[in-house]
Amino acid sequence: MSRSRKSIARSLLLGFLFSAFVTVAAMLLIAAALVYLRFGDRTLTMLNQILKLAAVVLGVCVAVPRGGERGLVTGVVIALLYSAAGYGMYLALGGGSFAVGNMLGEMLTGSAAGAVTGAVRANLPARGRFKAKSKA
Q1: Residue 104's CB: how many other CB atoms inside 10 A?
Q2: HEC sequence for the chain
Q3: Which of 36, 79, 117, 127 has the most crowded Cβ, counting Cβ within 10 A?
Q4: CA angle 4–59–33, rounded 5-degree value
Q5: Which long-range contacts (CB under 8 A, 24 or more apart) does 104-110 make?
Q6: pLDDT by residue for the chain (136 residues), tens digit each?
Q7: Are 48 and 89 in contact (CB under 8 A)?
Q8: What is the number of alpha carbons within 13 Å of residue 85 lying toward its C-beta?
């Protein structure tokens, strides 16, 4: 069953927007926790990386249903869009100068997580609305 370009674009957009929403919500929680718990820079960096990977994984889960199509490609595209947008926002908000190595690392890490998640989701058996009754 082939999907239309419109439905593919829609699922990519939904996955990307969900990833962005998860990131903003989690960053607000981390900022609130930072006020009370006084994280160190190392802990904050680790939480940030975990958050980015979790956002990509959840976004791909929204975009690729169980038993869906093109999970690997969808996962990679969402991860690349998310990484590029996130790094662009970081630079736009005065986070520092552009470093090719950092950007490449972000994109490769996100792409790997997105590809694996998409491939796994696409290869899981699709859930039916109702379970089939056994004839025992």
Answers
A1: 11
A2: CCCCHHHHHHHHHHHHHHHHHHHHHHHHHHHHHHHHHCCCHHHHHHHHHHHHHHHHHHHHHHHCCCCCCCHHHHHHHHHHHHHHHHHHHHHHCCCCCCCHHHHHHHHHHHHHHHHHHHHHHHHCCCCCCCCCCCCC
A3: 79
A4: 160
A5: 106/52, 107/79, 107/80, 107/83, 109/49, 109/52, 109/53, 110/52, 110/53, 110/56, 110/79, 110/80, 110/82, 110/83
A6: 566 788 888 989 999 999 999 999 999 999 898 888 888 889 888 998 999 999 999 999 999 888 888 889 999 999 999 998 988 888 888 877 777 888 888 889 999 999 999 999 988 887 765 555 555 5
A7: no
A8: 17
Length reported for the chain: 136
| Backbone torsions φ then ψ of 131, nearest 5 degrees | -80, 145
Please name the residue that has the structure tokens 């998860």: 22
- Sign of the Cα torsion 24, 30, 36, 41 reads negative
Taking phi over 0 as left and psi of -120 to 50 as alpha, with beta for the rest, 39 belongs to beta
